Each structure stands twice: as C-alpha cells, then as structure tokens.
Known about the structure:
The chain is of the alpha/beta class. The protein has two domains: 2-115, Transcription Elongation Factor S-II, Chain A (Up-down Bundle); 126-423, no CATH class. It is 51% helix and 9% strand. The protein is built from 18 helices and seven strands. The chain has helices at 2-24, 26-33, 35-56, 71-84, 98-114, 126-135, 137-152, 159-176, 199-202, 211-224, 242-256, 279-290, 295-309, 330-333, 335-341, 351-358, 370-373, 400-407; strands spanning 206-209, 232-236, 262-267, 313-317, 346-350, 382-387, 418-423. The chain has a seven-stranded mixed beta sheet with strand order 1-7-6-5-2-3-4. Helix 7 crosses helix 13. It is globular and about 60 Å long. The protein starts with a helix and ends with a strand. One of its GO terms (biological process) is methylation. It comes from Baryphthengus martii.
Amino acid sequence: SFAYFTIKDRLPQILTRAIDTLHRHKNEFFEEHGEKGVEAEKRAISYLSKLRNELQTDKPVTPLEDELPDAALWNQYLDYQRNLSNGNGEPSWFQSPWLYVECYMYRRIHAALAHNPPIDNFDVFKEGKAQNFFESQEAVIALCTYFQELLKNIKDLDENQLQEELFKLLQVSLWGNKCDLSFSAGEDSSQKSSPLQSLENMIPYILVNDMEKLWSLLVNAKKRNTEKSDVRVDIILDNAGFELVSDLVLADFLLSSKLADEVHFHGKSIPWYVSDTTKRDFNWTIKQLQSANHMWMSRCGINWEGNLKKGAWVYHDHMFWTLPHDFSSMAEVAPDLYADLQKSNLLLFKGDLNYRKLTGDRKWEYTVPFHQALNRFHPAPLCSLRTLKSDTQVGLKPGQGEQIQASETEWMISGKYGVVQFDAAL
C-alpha cells in the first residue's frame, strides 16, 4: 500500500534530512550557545538516529517520556491502539494505522529538540519552508499582482463577477496544496509559474466541485447577518510557502469583497509534516512580503499585518491539530477547540492530512457520502480543499473512481487530482 511505501521509504528520508540539518548547524549552535549547543546537537542527533533505527526495524511504538503538555494524551492513544490489536502484539511501526505512526514520528522529532535545550526552539524544517517560499517567488509575485489589481475595482464588481473571482482564488488555494514537502520527502516542491494561467485546464481534475455551495452559503450568511453578528470564516491551514500565500490572498479577498467580516487561521503549535505552517512561519511569511522590493508583494504584506493588528484576522494554534486523533473525537478530546469552531459560518480545511483526519483515514468505498465519513464531526458547515496524496477518498459518483483507476493507477497519490468538498453540517 501507499502507507507501506511511506513508512518504509519516505519517513526514514525525512529523518535523515532532519539529522543532516542539525549537523549543518553545528557551528551556528556553537556560536550561539558554546559547548552546550554542540552537546545538545549531539544528543538530538543520537535520539533521531535511534528513532530511525526503531522505525526501519519495525520496533514497537514506545510511550512518550517527556513532560510536554500533550504527552499524556499521546500515551492514552497508544493504549487505545494496544486495545485495538486484541493482544496481537504491541503496535509497531509497520503493524499500526499509518496516520498514527506518521503523526507519532513528527511528535518524536519534536521531542528530540524539546528535550535538548538550548536548541529546543530549533525547527529542523524551517530552511525547507523558507526555500519553498523563495523558489515560488514568480508565482507569489504573479498572485499578489493579480490580487492588488483586482482590489482596485472590487467595489464595482457585480455578484457574478465576485463569484467568478472567489472561484478563481479557491482554485489557486486548492492547487497551492500541491506544494507539500512531506509528500516529496523534503525535495523541491515549489510553485514555479503563475497558477492563474492554468486554472481552466485544471477544472476536469477537480473530482468533487462544491464551489457553488460555498458561494451560496457565504452570500446567504451575508444577507442574514446584515443586522446581527459578523460572518466568520476559519481556515485550517496546511503548508507554509506558496500554499500559505494563496490562503492569505483568499482570506483577504473574503474580507475585501465583504463576504466575510473576520477570518480565523489555525496552524500547528509545533513543526509538523515537514512543511506545515506554524505561528513563526505565518509571521515570517507576512514579514517577507512586507519587506519585498516588489510593490504588490509588499502591499499585500502591509495590508495583512494591518488585518492582524485590527483583529479582522486572528491566528490560533491548538495542540489538538498535532495529536494523532481523528477530528470525530475533537468534541471529546478538545471541547474548547470544538466550541470555538462552532462559532464559525464556514470552516475551510486545507490539504491531505486534514482530509485524512476528517474521514478517519479509512479505505472507504469511493461513493460513501462525505457527511457519513465525517462520523458526526459537524461543528459548522465545512469544506475540504485538498489535492489527493493518499488513498482515501469519499463522495464520488458511482463508477467515477473506478473509471480513473482504469487509466491511472496512481491517481489517489499523485497530487494531480483535487476536491472542493462541502458538508452543510446539518
């Protein structure tokens, strides 16, 4: 299965890169922290090398031994996995659900650094994320330029034109999800060309296209809310780099077009899946745009800083997003987060990992309704914007999956296909 290939090949590569990154920063650690920094680097490398060996030799998954706030929840989850195996031995790297062991590896990478001050705040994936951003410069410039030109006459657009622009920016945000470093095991995955040119040609690759439903939801929320409270959209972020810029442009469009009054972003509280957005990445990206020597890029950065300052944009991170749990257990495991999401008019879930957690990462029949696969996770109307990079997909028409499978065996894992899949949460 694709899961087997991931655990056998991709995850050891990611660990090797993390070890290599620490090696390369040895001098920097020494300059900043002296011998203490070098000692910490050696301990972190030794921990990660041991982890790689455990993975490659299919050792049992061990409880976390750190004092971090989520450790107890992780260890409870390990007990839950043990109970699932009905006494068929301990959960191990190759004998456990893929989603669980993959999340577990990233949590252990975090532990390797968190245990080893003074380098405990070092993000082993930071360089790759920055590189992805810089290598996507052309696409970022094209998108910022397009958007700033659009803003000049956004007040004059009629409903049809607004809808057309929303659909364009939703698609840019959807295909931006191709830029994923955990998928390429950290190899270059930047967006080289302007994404706007090829949107028409990409429409046939959107297997479920519920953009119309999003439009009517936002327009109706606006009409209902003329008197009362603000319309709130939440974006549950995926990758930093170009994808994050495409999400920020979409968020700015929602505000500027008055389709939303506030946008809440949800990122990861620790480095995750190589290129996932943390608070540091979020702030760094806005700073990079602000200081860019390109007029429209810096205009975007300045406006976005302003959105944060005046509270029209709010950034959150919650440790639930980096637990191994499906979202169907959020109400129980993180009732505070679930209650917060219930305040939203629309939740946009970016990317493949969020899709796997929405649907419990099961090998569903393709035609199972999305609503059913969500397994009672319905805090608010929600939509998944996701390019397919793992073999879980629901909500297709009868025969649709089989038809593609006949000509493209890799269709579920290539990132070539996408979905804009909506659930009304009723």
